[in-house]
Amino acid sequence: MKRSVLLCFIVLLSASLYGNQVQQIPKKRTSTTKQVVKKIPMSNSVLAKGDWYKFYIEKSGIYKITPEFLSDLGIDVTTIDPTTIKIYGNGGQMLPLKNSENEEFDLKENAIKVVGGENGFLAKNDYILFYGQSTKGYNTDSKTHINAYDNKSYYFITTSGKKGNRIFNSESVNKKVDTVITTFREGQFYEIDQYNLGLMGRRWLGDQIRNNEEKQFSFYFPNKVDFMPVYYTIVAAAQSDKPSKFSIKINQKETEGIKFQKLSKGSIAKEGWVEKMITNNSDSININIKYETENQVLGKSYLDYIKISAERSLVLSDKQLKFEIRALNSVKKRGEIQLKNTKEITEIWDVTNTDSIAVFRNISFFRKFSFKTNLNQTRRFIAIPKNDFYHPLKPNNCKVENQDLKGTVFLDKENNFRDVDYIIITSKDKLLAANRLANFHREHNKKNVKVAPVHEIYNEFSSGKQDIGAIRNFIRYVYENASSDAKKLSYVCFLGNATFDYKHKMMDTEGNQIYKKNDVPSFMSYNSFSNIRSYVSDDFFAMMDPEEGEMRLKDNLDIALGRILVDTDIAANDVVNKIIGYHQKNSFGDWKNNILLLSDDVDKVWEQRIQGSLDNVGNSLIKKYPFLNISKVYSDAFIQESTSSGERYPNVTKTLIKKIEEGVAVLDYFGHAEEEGFGTEFFFTKKEAIKLKNKDKLPLFVTVTCLATRFDNPFEVSVGEHIFKNPNGGAIAMIATTREIFMSAGVRINNKIINSLFSEKDSHLKPSEVVLKLKNELGYQDKRSVFFIGDPVMSLQMPLPTIRITKINEIPIKKFNDTIRALDKIRISGELLDVSQDVIKKYDGEIYVKIFDKEFSKKTLGNNRIKNRKGDLIQLKYKDQDVVIYDGSFEIKKGLFDFEFVVPKDINLSVGKCKIILYAKVENALEDAVGVQEDILLGGLSKVKSSNINGPEIRVFIEGEKTKVINVVKANAELKIEIADEDGINVSRMGIGHQMTMTIDGHTREKKILNNYFSNYDNSYKKGFISYPLDTLSKGHHTLEIKVWDVFNNSSSQKIEIIVLDSL
Predict the structure, then answer these.
(1) pTM for the full model?
(2) Residues with Cβ < 8 Å from 249, sequence gap 6 or more?
(3) What topology does CATH give the domain 801-854+863-941?
(4) How confident is the model over 999-1027, as pLDDT tens digits?
(5) Domain 6-28+585-798 class?
(6) What is the DSSP letter of 151?
(7) CA–CA separation, 529 vs 481, rounded Å?
(8) Model pLDDT for residues 168-214, shown as the tens digit of each residue
(9) Which residues have CB under 8 Å from 147's CB, separation 6+?
(10) Could you tell me the residue ranges of all domains in the chain?
């Protein structure tokens, strides 16, 4: 759907533009006051040595570990020294988003109690007690009681090494107390995660309540204190195009409800909440909620959570009781805590600090028990009955291999300290691909690259459970412990998928787990109800300052990031193959100069800015960088066709695919896009993305659009993902947006990206660093949706403009004032220069020449008949210079070149300036250069005549063999057509009907234009060949008719018959 205020904007930019210069990345904006925060200390992980085993819990409380459970984990209990049993873990709560609030950067040893073991071994009836903290509990960052990333709270146990940490007995000292405490406030909640309404963000909702439906939620507070306030909060969301409401009753008494606004454009749901205090003298509290809306059919609501708290007397039972006593004021600091019905209670543990647990023992077993303690801070206690212990659970893989990310990340092969340049974070199944990429950059770019398995990060930084904070804290650990500011970590790559479904809850309609998993998680916004305000972002992992992490607009990045979006190890290796291949010789060629501007059409008046702003981008590039070959493919300049699926632009699709596969340096698309494809007419979709074959001519796609590269939806693989993952082509990398953005923001973001990529000032920046710079300069939320998809260390390798034409027809270029005419024979000489403007005499290689006819004036068609305020049809008038009149390649020897060609008859005969673009590459090195001449006049017709009235000679080969009457071929066979003509072969794309063509099965309306597949032989304009793949032909019998022309427009044709054995 097109949105009147939203722009889906796309740019494709070839990853072949800038060199490997290394300079300082522009530093992010910083405040004038710098908070002094303790640096994260360097240390080894406790997991580096010894035998380790992992287990998990699902609720908070005191757990009992038996010798039998230890045996199930794989521990030989007969060899255990009970004094060396140790349990490590940091509990199940989510890590704080803000950097300064994170204090634990390794597993913490918990205080435990070993019952028995006095004889030096664990007997059958001996056991271990420890306090385990679950994943549940209110989190202010995410406004939820449920851990967003994991349901399991993991703990680690080892039985080797030094003696373990034990709980200690705390005596209730007879000192004067400031207060006596007999009650505590207990909080309860009801919350389930079942629905993610927008399939985005980290917010999940629970019970669905339809119109006029009523549900009851019950809470029980034993020994509740009468006449004390009960506080409750109810948070929910509704989906209705009419205003709606919750009617709420508490113990059948009407109370304040919740009003929901009607859905607005672009919103998925509307939130509502109520916070109230009531008095209720019943231990049972029943909350009845009824949803009401005028929309009888579509209206529905979802409960987020109910949070309720009441004051309870400290009266115990035969079950564990967790209670919290809040800190006293500054005057009152010591209290006596009095409990009743304590006959079954053996101990009360103070679990405020899990590494230092104090125990108050109930020796008397009377019905009353009290103890005294300092209440200078809020303290958490658990009263333990004789036989009420919880039991831990065993995971599938409980044995933990030794690991030491923290201790080894800075070590080189000789175990010497070396600063880290680049970290690749990935899942276990993609380690082979990650290490291949790391080794490539170690050898090719001399970077110190480290690969970090994400499960090892979790083990060391988040107690074994998934948490995005652990990944950020690991990155920050490396960043802060660099030897100097200049050597801090520069790049991080996340190799794997990320979706909003952190815990893989989503199922398909048949109850099967969906295909796309969350391998290496990303930050999901709390806002989950808007395609505009919701976002997925890796920015979180690059914010290193103490007060950053909460994703405020002023929080900026210190590290350049990249994400390689792949599902499997096979896909990961395919992408790594493309990255390595991109830096090899086969990927060098004159396609690096090609830029294609692609625009959407105009469906509404305001959309005329789409075409105009894109044309401004193109005109600016032509002016600044004339050596770029810019073609303008504006969809509204093509004929729009009506189909059963809607309006379509089939010739835009064909042109786009053709240009990409021929080699595109920049394809800048401005317009609308969805996950399915580009444009409301879908002129480039998943179908085309999957089939692209441009493996040696991979562009960087800069897709500053809406949802074309949205990757966090586990139900769908977007067109952008298909472009990136295509093993046979597609993209080398992408600068992409993943959410809807406003057109004004899209224009600014695109302009900043293009300006940085093509700026001499920023030419040292890698694409990932361009994104970093962009994000640190922008002050609005749209920047969070911009991603760099790919390898962040990848540089764009733009050939330097060091080719110079010195003579034309033996006349020095500065003195050449003649006009080149059609059918003139032209000789051009030139040289390659170094930065000192000296000829590079060691330069041997090839030079590719393209000569373009004069600039033409064009106009879009106004297919949708949209008129401006004056009543005029909206049409864009623009200039284009994309007609090639000559295309050839020649040798360079010792930095010099010289070649001849005949100007074809098919040119625009009016006199004007043509453009000559030259590209050169060295034979045995990864070096290239570019040059341009744009002041030579072209026009008119020479009086030269030819006595030759015959067309060119044609010889056709398939797979190296000359063709027969009937040729049996495979579907991927290569067709080679040799052409020769004494006057010269016409390679111009100007003359209508005079192009090199191939007609298949007599379908003259669907002729294949072969000009771009032509190369000349032996530095001669008189002979050459066409190499064309037959991989698009279906199985069976086909006829092929090839037709070519000479420069005097004499033609020849040849027809062959083939039988394709199989199709791809």
Answers:
(1) 0.91
(2) 255, 287, 288
(3) Immunoglobulin-like (2.60.40)
(4) 999 987 778 889 888 888 868 899 999 99
(5) alpha beta
(6) S
(7) 39
(8) 998 766 778 899 999 999 999 999 999 999 999 999 999 999 999 99
(9) 92, 93, 94, 135, 136, 139, 465
(10) 6-28+585-798, 46-167+391-399, 184-313, 801-854+863-941, 953-1060
